[in-house]
Amino acid sequence: MSEATSTLLWRPTGGVKLRQVGLAAAGFVVWLGLWQWMTTTGPMADTDGLPTASQTLSSTLELAGSSQLWSSLGTTLWLVAIALAFAVVAGIAAGVAMGFSPVVSALLDPISQVLRPIPAVVWLPLLLMVLGPAPELGIAMGFLGGVWAVLVQAQVGVRDIDPVILETSRAMCLPRRLTLSTIVLPSAVPYFATGIRISAAFILMLVIGAGILGGAPGLGQLILVAQQTGDPARVFGLVLWSGLLGLTFNSILTAGEALLRQHRGGR
Fold it and tell me: Can you tell me where the transmembrane regions are (predicted)?
């Protein structure tokens, strides 16, 4: 086995993983220590609106016992799930169609090129006027920001299929529907998984952002209320909870994507 192949097949051992976790924990402790020093005796001491690390950690732990936090987390995850479902269905359908059919690609690609670079937050004023600070605001924001990652990955996945396989299916006169269901879609599944993981991260950020900027229900709205009531320690605590939610969410999706690729690689 070549050195390059050995490198590609290398996986972290238990000891290496433990060391990585230890280094990450040490970095976090150093960061907290620096934060505490900066806000107590350092150059940012007594800065209005900037709590110390100890105050933030205390607020974070206090929030763990709050039913309001868990209710808001549940609402946020529910809105993310709905927006992600819409983004997956629309993104895969459009991406596969654009990747498989030159005619559909010629029709939809100009629209995609115009709309895709627009930041989702730009849609907020219009959506706020139409939907108001309702759950639908978070769903719409999440969908508009997350659909493109799925669409692009689906399109790339279809176009990455070996042309010889597609030519063979045409030579065998396989119906297009059968070609799609037995060749195109199964081959593009790993790309779908990557698109879903990327999309989910965008959607989570935008659903929380819709609450902070537009008052949509969920964790973002809780952060907005804490800011309006002048409780910076609670704001920072909620931001930490948002980070933990995002880290957990991304870790689950990354693990799922890795398992899917491993399963397909072993077939």
Answer: 21-38, 77-107, 137-158, 202-226, 238-260
Rounded CA-CA distance 96/101 in Å is 8
Helix (H, G, I), strand (E, B) or coil at 231: coil
- Residue 21 is assigned to a structural domain of this protein: no
Distance CA 65, CA 31 (A): 25
pLDDT of residue 12: 59
Which residue segment(s) compose the domain that 140 sits in? 55-265
**How many independent structural domains does the chain possess?**
1
Amino acid at 259: L
Q: C-alpha dihedral over 7, 28, 56, 204, to 10 degrees?
A: -10
Instruction: Burial-class residue 21 by CB neighbours within 10 Å (0-12, 13-18, 19+).
Output: exposed
Residue 29 included in any domain: no
pTM: 0.84
H helix intervals, 101-184 = 102-115, 124-131, 135-159, 163-171, 176-179
In the chain, the largest separation of any two C-alpha atoms, in whole Å, equals 77
Which stretches of the chain score pLDDT less than 70?
A: 1-15, 264-267
Residues contacting residue 139 through CB under 8 Å, at least 6 positions apart: 79, 82, 83, 86, 207
Cα–Cα dist 125/131, whole Å: 10
